[in-house]
Amino acid sequence: MPECGDARLNETPVSRKVEVGGRQVGGEVDALMCTKCGHVMFSGPALEAFEISAAAALIEHRVLTPQTFRFALKALGIKSKELVTMFFTIPETVSRWEAGTIKIGPLCFFPLLMLLQETMGGELRPARMLAGMQTKPAGRR
Ligand SMILES: [Zn+2]
Hints:
This protein has six helices and three strands. It has a three-stranded antiparallel β-sheet with strand order 1-2-3. It is of the alpha+beta class. About 45% of the residues lie in helices and about 20% in strands. The N and C termini lie far apart (about 45 Å). Zinc ion binds near residues 4, 7 and 36.
């Protein structure tokens, strides 16, 4: 911080929470903390990585809501137009998914989860993911 003069910035993990459709997801984000005033700064990429893992955690916990869907798309930087191609569908359907006026099928979350896991550099386990997707989602209204 400029007002802290010669204070140092220490790299430190800071716990952070995000609320998506009434569900809270927490995690640790690497941040820089001012040794003098305690001010915390997050880097853009660290926050992006946090949102990616939060979105993956929501889907893995079967919180298959329109809010999770929008959050995952934002985290991945996927535009509505790209969804039309990805799901072989029409723009009207994507609009309704995003607005929550029609139900998003559980399998629509599957490619998003794969993309999230790929971004995280984790191991992809499609068979296990699909087995989980067949169970009733936990986030049903
Ligand atoms: Zn400071």
